[in-house]
Design brief:
Length: 446
């Protein structure tokens, strides 16, 4: 049984992600915790959030785990609070950037880190075997409410870091009807940053719908209309951010990494001149960093793997093209609001940093295609002829590009990404690879 993907358990609420499954996940997590133990539970604004929260509360309290409810908060806020409130674990109910009908369950340890894959596998085994401690009538977990306290604690944390370090420039915040609405507007206000808020109502039925980090064109339009200095768009659980500069240019995670890396380097705070990013980051970022004497270490897709390599290497900065940025000085996980403030603090010292990044990070065209995979295919190398096609595509790029083939961590899809200077070449080879996979999958042998 494989429930956990690259970012927790996800599915359509009340369909593949049911109340029954949420109850069992809580029981499975509880079986891995010491006694006594305390667990934080937070959620984004989705309509299904309270329903799944109730199931998790029941599963934990049934097995003697005290539950602290913190309400609607970003995932990184929950990660910070896990340590600040001395919890043994935390559970976030969110499907991040997914559409409103989806939801998810992410488990965080007491240090604010995503649970290790081995711990998630232990939960899966416990659920499969229905193997957890028996309920004890003498020890039922308490349910405690910290909604207001927890939100204020996280906001004070951000304000304490950036007070006096950010400019009072007018900005636009698109909180995407998601968890950022509970923190970002107040934090910016208390730091003295004039902020126009878009999609600020906590409407779970509209979370990520034509707004937020997956639709930066919305904040771009507002930046141009209101002549703001910067636009910032967050996803549903606010662990990622995409920026827009005053000219309307969209700034993704790669360029944010470049700006932050140069600033850390200038301050002597970039350990070993190392930046960590996933295989999805553009080759242009790698080359731009190399020209400044910095080097890029790549990981599999997922901020969990970025965080793991950062811990192993001592790196201070890592992230994803999608806008997950980890600044090790302050956090162990991606935090969209913190990243936005860190970017503003750099711009206060170097107002032209975004323009410099635009020149330095030369974008290599990328083409991404998705091919549905049948459940019986566990490794793309099982697809006949695909390895040879990949080798041929790599040869055609002549060292000026990359071919990446990987299964999705959240959907039954094979993702094929090509990157290179010549868009016609990569489009041609993307089509060849996609066709090769589809033809092979239609054969009886696969």
């Amino acid at each position: 049984m494989a429930l956990f993907g690259t970012d927790g358990v996800r599915g359509v609420a009340n369909d593949t992600l049911t109340v029954s499954l949420a109850l069992d996940i809580a029981r499975g997590v509880a079986a891995q915790l010491p006694r006594p133990a305390r667990v934080l539970i937070g959620r984004d604004t989705r309509v299904s959030g309270p329903m799944l929260e109730a199931a998790l509360v029941a599963g934990f309290s049934e097995l003697g785990i005290d539950v602290m409810l913190v309400g609607v908060l970003p995932t990184p806020a929950l990660a910070y609070l896990a340590s600040a409130m001395d919890a043994d674990a935390a559970v976030m109910i969110s499907a991040s950037h997914n559409p409103p009908q989806d939801n998810g369950i992410k488990v965080i340890d007491g240090q604010g880190r995503k649970w290790e894959a081995e711990a998630e596998e232990a939960v899966e085994r416990a659920i499969e075997r229905q193997n957890w401690p028996p309920a004890d009538p003498q020890r039922i977990g308490q349910v405690l409410h910290y909604e207001d306290t927890a939100s204020a604690l996280y906001r004070r944390h951000l304000i304490s870091i950036f007070n006096g370090r950010v400019p009072d420039w007018p900005v636009v915040l698109d909180v995407g009807h998601g968890a950022a609405q509970a923190t970002a507007p107040l934090v910016f206000q208390q730091l003295g940053i004039p902020a126009r808020v878009l999609n600020g109502e906590p409407l779970g039925a509209l979370i990520n719908v034509n707004c937020g980090a997956t639709h930066p064109e919305v904040v771009r339009e507002a930046v141009l209309r209101y002549r703001a200095r910067l636009g910032l768009a967050f996803d549903g659980d606010a662990d990622r951010v995409i920026a827009v500069d005053a000219t309307g240019r969209i700034i993704d995670g790669d360029e944010i990494l470049y700006v932050l890396a140069l600033d850390l380097k200038a301050r002597g705070a970039l350990a070993d001149d190392l930046v960590v990013a996933t295989v999805m980051s553009n080759l242009g970022l790698e080359q731009a960093l190399r020209r400044r004497g910095l080097h890029l270490r790549r990981t599999p897709v997922g901020d969990r793997w970025v965080a793991q390599v950062m811990r192993e290497t001592g790196a201070q900065l890592g992230g994803e093209q999608s806008g997950h940025i980890i600044l090790k000085e302050w956090t162990e996980t991606g935090d969209g609001v913190l990243t936005a403030l860190a970017l503003l603090s750099v711009l206060a010292r170097r107002p032209t940093a975004l323009e410099e990044a635009a020149v330095a990070v030369e974008r290599f065209p990328q083409v991404l295609v998705n091919v549905p995979l049948p459940g019986r295919v566990n490794d793309w190398r099982q697809v006949p002829g695909l390895s040879s096609l990949v080798e041929a595509a790599e040869a055609a790029l002549q060292g000026e590009g990359r071919v990446l083939v990987r299964p999705s961590g959240t959907e039954p899809l094979l993702r094929i990404m090509l990157e290179g200077r010549d868009v016609d070449v990569i489009q041609e080879w993307a089509h060849r690879l996609e066709t090769g996979v589809r033809v092979a999958l239609e054969s009886a042998e696969v």
